Amino acid sequence: MKFDFDFENATKIYFGKDSLKNLETELNKYGKNILLAYGGGSIKKNGIYDKVVAILKKCDKNIIECSGILPNPALSKMLEGAKLVKENNVDLILAVGGGSVVDCAKGISVAAYYPGDDVYQRYWVNWEPLQDHKIVPVASVLTMVGTGSEMNGGSVISDIDNKIKTGRVFPPNVYPKFSILNPEFTFTVSKYQMVSGVFDIMSHLMEQYFSGDDDNTSDYIIEGIYKNVIRAVKIAVDDPTNYEARSNIMWDATMALNRIVGLSKTQDWEVHNIEHQLSAYTNCSHGMGLCAISMPYYRYIYKFGLHKFVRFAKEIWKVDPTGKTDEQVALEGIDCMEKFAKECGMITTLKELGATQEMLPDIANSCIEGGGYKKVTKAEILEILKNCYE
């Protein structure tokens, strides 16, 4: 392990078929006023809303609802939720839904008592340290997996008016206090949403994996999780209610971004930076955007981290190196990933996601220049986007 690190993660996880039973115990630790945050209403169709509300009422809680949180949560909704929190003296924000709902809940918790009107600029755009103001506790009941937001400080929020989508990783006091993970709650998610979340998991792992030239424990953990994701999603695509497969995917998602696998590592995150601006212009599914960008991006930078891409090909995709150059092995590994994505029904071109060629220069110009093995410029980002188009 090459670099010193600190690690703290105080989120309590309740995992399994009976995990919702623990909600009552946790709710009794908080005050009377609960902000119930959720998305477009799918939790009402699948019955999760009724189960959660019944427990809230049993605990004699006053429920304030913040519904309609989008898959790419909007700044306007975050500010609306923050206003509700302050007006109703909310004691706990309970996010019921996928990662976007949890991301928005964290944003609400941070924004509610922020002493000013520039919270997005200062905390999300500028990444300034949190000021000394009240942070409202957050908890989650997860219904879709991929982001890992249930056990980290990440909060990605979109300023729709200005076409800015940016994420911020907040310190541990913003992490969910507890998260309830019942794999059965993900069974009704569509195949499209499921595989989109799976590529989000894969991308989180790769953003942390493709960096550095040292031998460290984190990379071995990443390889194990990545291989399990591949195995589990193949089963889940054919059998969506296979509990073992869906439970493994759910825990893989949490492990991929609760900081464990990134310890003592430099990291990349340029694929995410590019995708954020892609979805700011197209409102595409985050995981599908990552999928469309990843293969062209890695084909563009692989020579600068050739040793790691060779290892990725051999360890993850079982590429036989016999009679091949390192470059051929590395590229075959990326080809294997692309083939896998297509077999699972993932989107691999920007055109399929609603982007137009006319958008690409604007998207590129709005992106953050960065990367791991190769620092890409805006001109190079445009070239990568062109390679992603069709």
UniProtKB/TrEMBL annotation:
Pfam families noted in UniProt: ADH_Fe_C, Fe-ADH
Keyword Oxidoreductase: yes
InterPro entries per the UniProt record, alphabetical: ADH_Fe/GldA (IPR001670), ADH_Fe_C (IPR056798), BDH-like (IPR044731)
Keyword terms, alphabetized: Oxidoreductase
Matches recorded under CDD domains: BDH (cd08187)
UniProt enzyme class: oxidoreductase
Domain Fe-containing alcohol dehydrogenase-like C-terminal, first and last residues per copy: 195-388
EC number annotated for this UniProt entry: 1.1.1.1
Record domain Alcohol dehydrogenase iron-type/glycerol dehydrogenase GldA: where: 11-183
Gene3D superfamilies: 3.40.50.1970, Dehydroquinate synthase-like - alpha domain
GO molecular function terms listed in the Swiss-Prot or TrEMBL record: alcohol dehydrogenase (NADP+) activity; butanol dehydrogenase (NAD+) activity; metal ion binding; methylglyoxal reductase (NADPH) (acetol producing) activity
GO cellular component: cytosol
PANTHER family: ALCOHOL DEHYDROGENASE YQHD (PTHR43633:SF1)
Protein name, UniProt field: alcohol dehydrogenase
